[in-house]
Give the backbone structure.
Amino acid sequence: MFERSAGDSTPRDDALRLLARREYSRAELAERLAAKGHSQADIGECLDELAAQGLQSDTRFAESFLRSRLFRGQGPVKIRLEMERRGLDPEEVREAFAAGEVDWQALACETLSRRFPGPGDSPRERARRERFLAGRGFDFDQVRYALTHAWSADPDDA
C-alpha cells in the first residue's frame, strides 16, 4: 500500500497523528507529510483515502478555522487571506463565509471596545484605533462603523 520512507511511519500514521490534534487543510497535510520524507504519490493516495473516509475535510477545516478566528476578533480580510494561504481554494473560502453568517460590524465594535475604553480624544488616538481594527482585518466600512458605535449602549441603535 504505502512505502515506508520516513522511519517506520506511513503517511497515514503521520496524518492521523496530526489530525488528532486539530483540523488541517489538504494542502497543509501534504506539506507536513512531505517534510517528513514521504513521497508525493503516497501522500496523494493517503489524502484521497482520508478524505473519502471523512477523516480530512477542507470544508470542515474552513468552518473550524473561521470560528477560531472569529473568537479572536479578526475581520474578514485577514481571515480570507489566511484561509487562502493555508491552501483553500477561493470557492471553499466563499462557502465558509456564506455558511457563517457573521455580523462583521458588531464584531468590529466588540473587538474595539474590548481593547480600548473609549473613542479617543485626539486625532492621533482615533487613528490608533483605526490601525488596530485594520490590522485585525476589518475593512474601511466596518472600521468607520465601529469607531462611531463601539461604545454606545446598543450598537444597533444608530
Observations:
- Residues 112 and 132 are 8 Å apart (CA to CA).
- The chain has three domains: 11-52, 58-100, 104-149.
